[in-house]
Write a structure and sequence with these properties.
Elements (H helix, E strand, L loop, with lengths): L15 H4 L8 H4 L9 E4 L26 E8 L4 E8 L7 E5 L18 E5 L10 H10 L4 E5 L18 H15 L3 E7 L1 H12 L8 E6 L16 H10 L3 E2 L2 H10 L4 H7 L3 E4 L9 E4 L3 H13 L3 H5 L5 E8 L8 H16 L3 E7 L6 H4 L1 H14 L5
Parallel strand pairs: 5-6, 5-7, 7-8, 8-12, 12-13
Antiparallel strand pairs: 1-2, 1-4, 2-3, 4-6, 9-11, 10-11
Helix pairs in contact: 4-5, 6-9, 7-8
Length: 399
Amino acid sequence: MAGVSNLGVMCGCEPRWVAGGGGKGMGIFAAASIDRRVTLRILRSSKDEAYHVGRLFANSSRMKPLESHQRFSTRMALLGQKIVQHPDVAKSSGVLAYDLVQGSLVEWNSFMDKSVPDPPTAVLLHGILGGRKNWGSFARRLAQEFPTWQFLLVDLRCHGDSASIKKHGPHTVASAALDVLKLVAQLRVTPRVLVGHSFGGKVALSMVEQAAKPLARPVRVWVLDATPGKVRPGGDGEDHPGELISFLSSMPQQVSSKHEVVDALVREGFSTDVARWVVTNLRPVSQTGSSLPPGFSWIFDLKGIAEMYKSYEETILWETVENVPRGVHVNFLKAERSLHRWALEDLQRIHAAEELAADEGAGVEMHVLEDAGHWVHADNPDGLFRILSSSFQLLRPSM
C-alpha cells in the first residue's frame, strides 16, 4: 500500500488482535525481543512540550528565527523508573510530538551546555496514517544493539499527538520535512541517519533537499519502499491509501466501537489486517454527563492527511537523488513483495544515479528486502535490521 505506514505491530502497545495466531508481522516480538536488563532512556514530549534554542540551523540562510514562546516543563521518562521533572524551558507553538529513545551509553540531553556534543542521532519517520509508535519496538532494538546512539521518533503533522498542534497549510511532503528540521534544531541534535517508510521516505529526501548544508557529514538516508518520483497508478491492490483516506473521511468523527469500523472497512473491500491497523488510531472519548456509552474518535486530521497523500503522489525529488550533496548517501529499499509501484524506469534511474553519485563523493544505493511486503518493518524486521545496521556500524563513534 504505497504511502501507508506499517501495521500497528511495531508499537509498544499493540492491540490484542496482534498478539495471537498467525498473520502479518506476528513473529516480530520474538525477532525483535528486547533485553529488559538494558537501560534505555526515552525523552518524550506531549502536545504542549517542546525545546527552543532561538534559531533554526543558524548557518542556513533559508531558515528564520523562531518567535518567542512562553514557559513550560518537559519530562524525561526512564523505562522501569519514575518520571523525572526537569526545569522549565521555552515552549514552541509549532513542535511535533516525539519520543527520543537513547541507548544505555548515551549521557546527554538538550538541557546540557551547548558545548557538549550531541550523540549520533537517527530520525525514524512513519508513513501516511501511521505514527511514531510504529517504530517503537524497532527503535528500542536498535538502541540496545547500538547503545551510543539515540533515535528520534516523531508524529508527523496531522498524525497522532501532532494532529492537535495546529499548523498552517499547505500540508505537503515539504512542509512535513520542514517540521522535522525545526524539531531537530529545537532539540539541538544533528541527524546522522534518516529513515523514512513510504511517505516518510519522501519526507527524508525533502529534508536533504531543504537543508543539505546543516546536515551532518556523512549522513545516510534510507527510503523504505518508496521512489523519488510521482506515484504511478495501479499496484496497491485492495488497500489503496487514497481510497482508504476517502472512506475514513466519510465516516462519523466519533464511533461507538472499533469493531464497527473494522467491519465497515472489510465490507468496503479493505483487508482485515489494514482495517485492524487503522483502528489503532482511535482513542476513547468519555460521555461525561450523558447516558450514551463511551465511544471513540480519530486521533488524526483526515483532511490534512488527504492533502499530504496527494502531495506524496505528486512530489518529485529526482533532482535531489541525481545531485546528491557530497557526504550524503541515499539508500533505497524495495520490498520483494511490494505493492508499491516500482517501474523499470525508476530502477534504471536509481542505478544510473549510483554511478553518478560515486563520482561526486556521495552515494546512492539500491537494496531489496526479501520476504517482505510494503510493511517492511513488520513483515521482515530481522532482515531490515541487518540491512539498516550497516549505517550505524559505519558511523559508530569512537569510544
